[in-house]
């Protein structure tokens, strides 16, 4: 696998919005740094914007950790067996195998950063 060997500087406007599998109703992301070919060795970094009523279905990652950092809007996060309200300045660390889902229950877009990295076993 080849990874980037030089620093990468880009503008958000250069990156297209995408709707990933399992994301519904205007749950869009811009993949800013991708793990793998031509990107980072391990880090996936993206910004997501969910329109009102948009959501990602309940799912879990077997070998990945994630951080969601909310910068605008509000929504309802399912994490394990809990449901919690998230809004600007909320953040959550999601360990591997923990089921999670996210719904925009607010009146405007729910905007957040997503950082994903694989679990490193020593």
UniProtKB/TrEMBL annotation:
UniProt cross-references to Gene3D superfamilies, sorted A to Z: Jelly Rolls (2.60.120.10)
Cupin type-2 domain residues: 49-115
Keywords of this entry: Metal-binding
GO MF assignments: metal ion binding
Signal peptide residues on this chain, from the entry's feature table: none
Pfam families: Cupin_2 (PF07883)
InterPro entries on file: Cupin_2, GPI/OXD, RmlC-like_jellyroll, RmlC_Cupin_sf
Protein name: Cupin domain-containing protein
Species assigned in the record: Falsiroseomonas stagni DSM 19981
